[in-house]
Design brief:
Blueprint: H1 2-11, E1 13-15, E2 25-30, H2 38-54, E3 59-64, H3 75-80, E4 86-87, H4 99-105, H5 114-128, H6 130-137, E5 141-147, E6 153-156, E7 170-172, H7 176-183, E8 188-190, H8 197-202, E9 208-211, H9 215-218, E10 227-229, E11 239-245, H10 246-251, H11 254-261, H12 264-288, E12 292-294, H13 298-322, H14 329-350, H15 354-364
Parallel strand pairs: 2-3, 2-4, 7-8, 7-9, 10-12
Antiparallel strand pairs: 1-3, 4-11, 5-11, 6-9, 6-10
Length: about 375
């Protein structure tokens, strides 16, 4: 039994090639996602190689994937207790420990471009939200970089002429921001685990699902869905790619810390670009299978804009209920909105130039850590 357990742990871990020096410092990193996940293949593995090179071999990152060191919800506790040195932390899984971080992430629906969402999240959480940093500090955690998910879309079994036709349909959605949006159409929200979406749609247990276009490839939804809305809404940005244990961070010398911070912009850029490419590849797969991608009608766009305005008030209410933002919960939410608007402008100017995007991330955020 012990041999089997050890073998499983080693199989689920990727040990990035070390320099071979006995003095190399090892950072153990817990990833709740499988080793094939975009976060690992496009972001963390290149980051591990980059920091080893930048540190002249004095740093090594060991990635434990698939939650073998800690499940997703347990990752923050594992970091706090030094079970691992670092890991990917989703604030929605630990709202009692990270209430301010999760409150800002409640405005998910307002971010419809992962480049904007990732940049705004990093600037707000790392530079503009002392409350967010303090709540991490209380659990011996130091967030280093956040990422943003692919944007969400409505994906349905059968074609519809407008989003108003979602009325009365069973729509799978998770998290308060997405559920609130679905309910604007008088739909019936159903809870279906991600792994069961295909079967639920195939059997007619759900008419539509809210999810990233990547589902067409990862879940083969092109086999059971005929229609998707081409109006993106929301990108979840309340998760770190990397949070470190404060003691583990403090044990690093200045050169090693610099080797890490100098490569954070590339880490975020790679994750963001990876998610966008996943969506593009999935779209191509779906189109080839005959899936209809419907351009949004003006009424649908206006409905989303009106809903975002109402969501602002809801998130302010969440902040007030949780005691986030002190005497000015509205100011707390406005600060995030201002950061989001700043990066909407920057990304609009940069277009699809990811090299320029990475440079902007470094200059505006990570060079200031």
């Amino acid at each position: 039994m012990k041999m089997r357990s050890t073998a499983s742990l080693l199989a689920a871990s990727i040990i990035v090639a070390a320099s071979g020096t006995a003095s190399a410092t090892n950072i153990s990193y817990s990833n709740p996602f499988p080793s094939s996940h975009t976060i690992q293949t496009t972001s963390m593995e290149p980051f591990a190689k980059a920091i080893e090179e930048s540190s002249n071999g004095s740093l090594r990152l060991t990635i434990h994937s698939g939650g073998v060191m800690a499940s997703g919800p347990a990752t923050l506790s594992a970091i706090q207790r030094s079970t691992v040195d670092a890991g990917l932390v989703v604030s929605a899984w630990v709202t009692s420990q990270l209430p301010a971080t999760d409150t800002a992430a409640q405005f998910t629906i307002a971010a419809s471009d992962p480049r904007v969402a990732a940049a705004a999240a990093n600037e707000f959480y790392l530079l503009r939200c002392p409350e967010c940093l303090e709540e991490n500090k209380k659990v011996n955690a130091r967030p280093l970089a956040y990422y943003a998910s692919s944007t969400y879309h409505f994906i349905c079994r059968r074609p519809i002429d407008s989003l108003d036709e979602l009325a009365g349909k069973r729509v799978r959605a998770t998290s308060a921001p997405l559920v609130n949006w679905v309910e604007q159409f008088n739909s019936t929200v159903v809870a279906v685990p991600t792994a069961d979406i295909y079967q639920a749609m195939q059997r007619g247990q759900t008419d539509c699902t809210v999810g990233p276009l990547a589902y067409f490839r990862s879940l083969n939804l092109q086999e059971v869905a005929e229609w998707a809305s081409d109006m993106p809404f929301g990108s979840y940005y309340g998760a770190t790619i990397m949070t470190m244990n404060t003691r583990a961070w403090d044990r690093l010398d200045e050169a090693q810390q610099t080797a890490i911070t100098d490569n954070l912009a590339a880490m975020v850029r790679n994750a963001t670009e990876g998610y966008i490419k996943d969506g593009e590849n999935a779209r191509a797969t779906a189109l080839e299978a005959g899936v209809i991608f419907a351009e949004p009608r003006e009424q649908d766009v206006k409905k989303l804009e009106s809903h975002i305005e109402r969501e602002f008030e809801r998130v302010v209410g969440v902040a007030r209920e949780r005691g986030v933002g002190g005497d000015d919960p509205e100011g707390f939410v406005k600060s995030f909105m201002e950061t989001l608007e700043k990066w909407e402008s920057i990304v609009s100017e940069l277009g699809d130039d990811f090299d320029a995007y990475e440079q902007a991330l470094h200059e505006e955020i990570f060079s200031k850590l």
